[in-house]
Amino acid sequence: MGKAARNRRSQRSRSSGSGPGAPRVVRGGTAEALEMVEQVSAETEMPCRATWIDDPLFSTPGRHAVAVRGQRAPVLLFEPQRILAVKDPVTGQGHELRVDSMVAAGWQRVPPRYVMTGLPAEGWALYRTATGVELCDPYGCIVAEGRLTPDPEWVSDAVSLGSVLVLFGPKLGIRVPPGRSLQSYTEQERAREFRDGRRAGLVAAATVAWHTSPPEDALMWVLLREGAFGLDLPPLAYVPLLNLKPSGGPHALGFASLDRLGREPMAIPVTSQLAARITATDVDLIPTDQPVGGFAAGYRTPAGTADPMFPGWRAAAARYGRILVITGPVDLMPEGEQTSPSHVIDVIRRSHGALVPLTADSAPAGLPPQPQPESPGDDGEQAEYSELLTAKLRSQESFEVYTADTVGRLVDRDTVHRWLTNLWPVACQTCGEPLGTKAELCADPPGDTSVMLSLHHSSCRASGATPPATAMVQPTVSFAAGYLPATPGQPSIRDFPVMVVNPSCEQLLLDRDATGGWRNASLDEFIALGFRRPDGDLPPHIPRIRAALDGDQLTVTINPDAPDGHKWTLTPPPHVRDLLRRRRGLAISVTTKALPALLIPDDLPGAFGDPEAVTGFTIIERPGPRRRPALHLPWPRTPQQPTADRNVT
Ligand SMILES: [Zn+2]
């Protein structure tokens, strides 16, 4: 079924039912009652009338309504034809559901004795349209609309005040009772009807902002690539609010306000009520309670299967297993790619969003949906895991390392203990799982002149010197950022920011030295890059290190272009971040003698300057001129039948 057909179907199902003037009595809480509420609430078109606060309608015996600031306040009356009367079984008190819901939304219930003005309803708006007026709630949904040609003077007053007093209720004296004519239904009788309405609690009022032009309804779907706004977001679909109104709107669908997006970390909820079905040309939002035949809103690529961007968007959606749906009342990119990023951000912050999982049949062939990796990415995960393991180690006072005779013979029994101070039992090098308080020391001779020492679980690999073919997991990298104090115990701007890294906690490479003994060769790759033993001076600048401070996160990349490069990411303490920004550089110490994640700040200078460590200096890259779009620019799309969607409401 095409979207127009679906919309027509949806429209038909909404407008079916008894017409005005056919009272029905149903029991509350039944499906029939709910259906009736839905039907009547969808009837937004109703008689309306524009007048001023000095209309005889508002005169009460002995009292007239007061003009606002010496000016006649313009008033607009909306009189729904059908009412949703509810009788409270306990108190016997009658209610009208739409009036009650407006009172709940910040409107005032007009008391019997007087009409008050100047009580604004936040976010509500009254628009002049081509044929009359339209009352919209803060979410841009039309609550009431009517045909009207307002007096130019009335419009002029509305413009100069910027607002209109709006009254809503079934007894405002607009319609003429059966058997009466427009001429014979007198002002006194209308005023009496209005008074009766107030006595019955059937009138809601608010001062509402006036707009001389129709609302800029969002009618365009926009698809944005993943990572939009420079945030870690899956592919995004901006959906006009009007499209989701028939499904209950953003609140009912479990969407959250995005007013803090990009300002602070915020969790975007995953909705359980919608699923996204993505085909080669379409994005359809399907209510999860109607997986077959259900349809909430949809979009088709204008270029069909020839669309150059859509396959990439779809593949990314499949990779994430979900899309971010944002819905709002205003077009996201009214001027296409020329739209200013500040407009886009502003619209997003006035919108609601939720992550919408993909239906099982959404994945393109060969791209099974995968759970989205949690945000920090591989480096962050690795750092977190390392932190977890070292925290475990921190709680241990000591650990035992078993050393077989074969290892002692290979390395030299007397010096084995010396090398143990360079090994940290974080993770088993066979299985990668945390080591406990006991580890087995193994030695692999990769060649005549070198040997690799490593730590393992007893159950994984017993201590010994084994054939060189044995595969091992990557050793744990542990790092920490701190500072060398200019004056001990007194943090100051003269302190120097440093990072201490152990690139290989559980593995140690030894090489034969000139005297026939062994030396620690684990840091040779860093010496090859220009790192030097610390000598008390500023370490040498290493051109092949890149360091960047992105927000609070420091990332150091060693040898970025090589496959065996390293990348370390962490969030330094606040004082260190300040120093990094001030100095625009940092010194790095690479060592196997310390487990940096275990170092307390006081120990850091000692570890940094350890004679067996090697040190280098790097400059923090200046962030380029603020990229105009942190927005990875998108490509806007217009749906096929915007006007059809519009009619649904
Ligand atoms: Zn193991």
Task: Provide a descriptive summary of the structure in words.
The protein is an alpha+beta fold. 22% of the residues lie in helices and 26% in strands. It folds into four domains: 43-211, no CATH class; 222-373 and 632-648, no CATH class; 380-465, no CATH class; 478-619, no CATH class. Strands 1, 2, 5, 6, 7, 8, 9 and 10 form an eight-stranded mixed sheet that branches. Strand 25 and strand 26 (518-520) form a beta hairpin. Helix 1 (3-15) runs parallel beside helix 16 and helix 11 crosses helix 12 (413-420). The longest helix is centred in the middle third of the chain and has 18 residues, at 377-394. Zinc ion binds next to loops. Zinc ion (ZN) binds next to loops.
Describe how the helices and strands are arranged.
Elements (H helix, E strand, L loop, with lengths): L2 H13 L15 H12 L5 E5 L21 E5 L6 E3 L6 E3 H8 L3 E2 L10 E9 L3 E5 L5 E6 L4 H10 L1 E6 L18 H13 L4 E8 L10 E3 L11 E5 H4 L4 H4 L3 E2 L16 E5 L3 E6 L9 E4 L9 H11 L1 E7 L12 H9 L2 E6 L19 H18 L5 E4 L1 H7 L1 H8 L17 E10 L2 E7 L7 E2 L12 E7 L11 E7 L4 E6 L5 E3 L3 H5 L16 E6 L2 E6 L7 E5 L3 H10 L1 E6 L13 H5 L5 E6 L15 E2 L5 H7 L1
Parallel strand pairs: 2-9, 6-10, 12-17, 19-20, 20-22, 24-30
Antiparallel strand pairs: 1-2, 3-4, 5-10, 6-7, 7-8, 9-10, 11-12, 11-32, 13-18, 14-15, 15-16, 17-18, 20-21, 21-25, 23-24, 25-26, 27-28, 28-29, 30-31
The protein binds zinc ion (ZN).
Zinc ion binds next to loops.
